[in-house]
Write a structure and sequence with these properties.
alpha/beta; 6 helices
Length: about 425
């Protein structure tokens, strides 16, 4: 019987969908190495490997078979995916073109327990998993309306659907992968960027909240958006903007704030020409270099001036705070604790908290490879992001359906 790798339910799936990897045709109790690899849009190579032993029937099922070593151990059905590591150190996996092509993950099996450097050129068997970011029927629409630059994703069907704005980290450009994946689950989403992109102003000092209000209005008026309110999700700098939108824009009734701050970070915030926050600043002279050779930012952020805290007690909506407890970009857990304290002091209870031990800064949709350190645009070099692979990846998988459930509940799907 020939050795083969089976991918269930299909070799083609959405990126956030789990996959069952099975192997048949091995000798009873044969020791093997499973390897996964992909190349990103810039031809950067990511790879992972784990050691397994076949059962008495010469089969492997990663939903039941434990890894005995390699990039992870134990029963981890998607371990080969979340443990993918860049060959070029500190490279973060980012998908920019979500429409034209998938990320193709090659899965190979080799005889014996061998490190990546010891593997022979020819595997015993190979399978390819195509992981797409848009399901059939999902429509992608570039948006250039007024000052707004972004991309709408509209699910198939009559709708209308809950509307959600998605924002990422500062200087990351227009990233659409979170927005497209969320739209696959029945949301009309707007992937939206706010600084140094296309015709948007560069070198912002104080950010105008009315620009974010324009984005809300663009989304609200789409015929496939179920009103009267919308939601917003943001990570890093995008998170404090999401918090600001929930605070000052009454049409934003649901906000997911992932590893954000409780004041405007990097640049100030203006509301109707009034400066609300001068921004959270940092002192680069306090930066250290970690043993890994990348920047340690844990002590560079200034203390939050409580006079500059976003007045979140004024929100009429509901907030879901998400904190990676080992976030090395800044102390996300501390900021969440301070936000909860402030809300409780004002008698507010329309919030929830998800706090994940062992997780770092970039909490992505499920099965994105763990990224401990990568290029940081604020300091123009690589910086620690925190977390460890297993716990961070668990957080990503646990968080994703909870985000969807939150938006459905608050936006009354």
């Amino acid at each position: 019987m020939a050795i083969s790798i089976q991918l269930q339910p299909s070799p083609r799936c959405l990126f956030d969908e789990p996959l069952e990897v099975r192997v048949s045709g091995l000798c009873p109790h044969q020791q093997v190495t499973l390897k996964a690899w992909l190349r990103d849009e810039k031809e950067q190579l990511f790879h992972s490997a784990a050691f397994y032993t076949a059962d008495p029937h010469g089969q492997l099922d990663l939903t039941r078979s434990p890894s005995l070593g390699g990039h992870y151990t134990g029963v981890q059905p998607m371990g080969l995916f979340w443990s993918l590591s860049p060959v070029t150190p500190f490279t973060r996996l980012v998908k920019r073109d979500v429409a034209a092509s998938p990320l193709s993950v090659h899965i190979e099996i080799f005889d014996g327990h061998l490190s990546l450097g010891q593997l022979p050129p020819q595997p015993l068997a190979t399978a390819i998993n195509q992981r797409w970011f848009m399901k059939e029927g999902l429509v992608r629409i570039p948006v250039r309306e007024g000052r707004i630059r972004g991309t709408l994703f509209v699910p198939p069907g009559n709708g209308p659907f809950p509307g959600v704005i998605c924002m990422n980290e500062i200087k990351g450009g227009l990233l659409e992968y979170r927005s497209s994946l969320l739209a696959n689950h029945g949301f009309t989403t707007l992937a939206f960027f706010y600084d140094n992109y296309d015709s948007l102003p560069k070198g912002v000092t104080n950010f105008d909240l009315e620009y974010l209000e324009e984005a809300v209005n663009v989304l609200k008026k789409h015929p496939k958006v179920k009103g009267p309110s919308v939601g917003v999700i943001g990570i890093s700098k995008g998170a404090d903007l999401a918090l600001s939108m929930a605070t000052f824009l009454p049409d934003v009734q649901a906000a997911v704030v992932i590893n954000g701050c409780i004041t405007s970070s990097v640049f100030g915030l203006c509301v109707k020409n009034k400066l609300i926050s001068t921004g959270l600043h940092y002192n680069i002279n306090r930066m250290k270099i970690a043993d890994s050779g990348v920047a340690d930012l844990s002590e560079i952020m200034d203390e939050v001036d409580m006079d500059n805290v976003i007045p979140i007690e004024n929100t009429k909506g509901t907030i879901l705070f998400v904190a990676g407890e080992d976030d090395k970009n800044w102390s996300s857990k501390h900021y969440v604790d301070e936000a909860v304290k402030r809300l409780k002091e004002h008698g507010k209870d329309k919030f929830d908290v998800l706090s994940y031990p062992g997780s770092g800064h970039y909490l992505e949709p499920p099965f994105f490879p763990f990224c401990y350190a990568s290029y940081h645009p604020a300091i123009n070099m690589c910086a620690e992001l925190g977390g460890n692979a297993k716990e961070h990846s668990f957080a990503q998988e646990d968080l994703w359906p909870k985000i969807q459930a939150f938006f459905r509940k608050v936006l009354h799907q």
